[in-house]
Every structure is written in structure tokens, then in C-alpha cells.
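FAQ: What does the model actually see?

It sees only this:
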Amino acid sequence: MHSNIFLIIVGMGLVTYIPRMLPLTLFHRIELPPFWRGVLRNVPYATLGALIIPGIFLSKTIGCLAFSAFSALSLLLGSASTSWASF
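And it is asked to produce this:
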């Protein structure tokens, strides 16, 4: 029974690890054009915005407060010369 669970956990780990490592090992020598590097560099910010923004605007309990905090944070980050990646 315990060996079955262990094999399932190892199998799930391999199924998760292999799709992440294959592109890294197969395409590590390919140089992307500057446009695509810029697009891929901004994907984490776009994903974070897509996850957070709907919650801010659709929240009924603290919608006004959340919108105010988001606006202040946007202004602060917009005026800062550093990016999130340097923190």
C-alpha cells in the first residue's frame, strides 16, 4: 500500500518535471528576437494583473477601498524608476 502511494507521488513529480525541463533542454541555444524577449519578459506582470484586477473591481465588500489602494500602488510603481524584478 505505501509503495503504491510512493510510486504515484514519484510519477506525478515526473509528469510535472518533464514538460518543464524539455523546452529548457531542447531550446536553450535558440536566441529569441528582441520583440519576443520583451513580450515574454512582461508575461508575469500581465498574468498578475489578470488575476488581481477582476477581484478588485468585482469585490462588493471592500471595492472602494481596494480600488483606492490599487490606484495608489499604480501611481507609486509608475513613478518609481525601478521594476519589480529588482526587489
